[in-house]
Specification:
Elements: E1 3-5, E2 12-14, E3 16-19, H1 34-46, E4 51-53, H2 61-68, E5 77-83, H3 90-104, E6 109-115, H4 122-139, E7 142-148, H5 158-163, E8 171-175, H6 183-186, H7 188-194, E9 197-201, H8 213-223, H9 251-260, E10 267-270, H10 275-284, H11 292-301
Parallel strand pairs: 3-4, 3-10, 4-5, 5-6, 6-7, 7-8, 8-9, 9-10
Antiparallel strand pairs: 1-2
Bound molecules: NADP nicotinamide-adenine-dinucleotide phosphate (NAP).
NADP nicotinamide-adenine-dinucleotide phosphate (NAP) binds next to strand 10 and helix 10.
Length: 311
């Protein structure tokens, strides 16, 4: 596993991070037992992944807490989040953090995010919530402050564009994948300038892990006139990525390798409840970049695509 520094946090993190939310929630979404999900997390840790992302709303914090027991806490980077789907107060943040720490079985979280606030709530957050987060950081319960986006509602990153004007966010979680590459224009130049740590979500999601989904996404982009029909084979639109000459071995492999080498990204989150998928994905992170000609073609085909996220 390759490691990097997470921007200005200087935390040493694996390029592949285990996402404990998303469509799988380490298997909890589709009936895996707690023991099976604990085994997925431990398999990730034993394979060299040291970055784990969870959230109070995923209901996987306690599983992560159980899984990390017995591992050297200081070698792990634990990221969790305070929900913002309902109006929150500074007091809620303090209470939620205490509960998260208790479920995770730790005295501090490395990164505490506000989870996907809407752009319209951002001014309130800066005024009412950020001072409390800074206080909790000074107390040592949070090492670094993060913010994640509602990519599915804001595929052009409006809230993160606003947040990147401020100086208190050490880390941002950004939606980015081969179908929606808009973060390259709207987010990464700003995060690189401020040396903000960048975590990538939606690298695979549903669109790039389920056989019928890429075609559906491409059809939507064609309908929205955001791609040129002459650029792709409609029956197998992303098939050109899979070939023996250094190409991808599968669509998920292409999706992870595409994000993994994008300048300005630090950790690519990968979520699964399936140890075989986890093993395959770890393999993808050991492979070189996709061939330059394939990357050039992806950049060309999806250059105007900003209306889908890969949900
Ligand atoms: N706004 C936010 O804060 C936010 C939003 C979304 C996600 N996140 C974070 O980002 C992480 C990543 O989430 P994501 O949205 O990018 O989705 P994801 O969790 O990476 O989803 C990938 C999907 O693809 C499947 N999959 C994975 N590897 C596969 C393989 N090799 N072959 C076939 N299928 C495979 C998984 O199902 P199986 O279980 O069957 O493998 C899973 O359903 C989340 O876990 C969460 O931590 C944060």
């Amino acid at each position: 596993m390759e490691y990097t520094l997470l921007g200005r946090t200087a935390l040493k993190v694996s390029k592949m991070g285990l996402g404990c939310g998303g469509p799988s929630q380490i298997g909890q979404r589709y009936g895996r037992s707690v023991e099976e999900s604990v085994a997925v997390v431990r398999h990730a840790l034993d394979s060299g992944i040291n970055f784990i992302d969870t959230a109070e709303s995923y209901q996987t914090e306690a599983i992560v807490g159980q899984a990390i027991r017995g591992y050297d806490r200081e070698s792990l980077v634990i990221s969790t989040k305070k929900s913002t789907s309902r109006p929150i107060t500074a007091k809620d943040v303090e209470t939620s953090l205490e509960r998260s720490l208790s479920r995770l079985g730790t005295s501090y979280v490395d990164i505490y995010h506000l989870h996907a606030p809407a752009l319209r709530d951002y001014a309130f957050i800066v005024k009412e919530i950020v001072p409390t987060l800074q206080h909790l950081k000074a107390e040592g319960k949070i090492r670094f402050l993060g913010i994640t986006e509602r990519f599915n509602h804001e595929p052009q990153h409006k809230m993160l564009q606003r947040a990147s004007q401020d100086d208190f966010w050490d880390v941002m979680m950004v939606g980015f994948n081969l179908l929606n590459q808009t973060a390259r224009k709207y987010v990464f130049p700003k995060t690189m300038k401020k040396n903000i740590g960048v975590l990538i979500m939606y690298a695979v999601r549903r669109a790039l892990s389920q056989p019928e989904r890429p075609r559906q996404g491409i059809q939507e982009l064609l309908k929205n006139k955001q791609i040129d029909p002459s650029d792709l084979d409609r029956d197998n639109p992303l098939g050109f990525l899979i070939h023996p000459d250094g190409g991808a071995v599968s669509l998920t492999d292409a999706a992870y390798r595409f994000c993994r080498y994008e300048p300005g990204t630090h950790v690519i989150l990968s979520g699964t409840g399936n140890i075989e998928h986890l093993t395959e994905n770890i393999e993808s992170f050991t492979r070189p970049p996709l061939p330059e000609s394939d990357i050039r073609r992806l950049k060309h085909v999806f250059r105007n695509a900003d209306s889908i996220t890969g949900q």
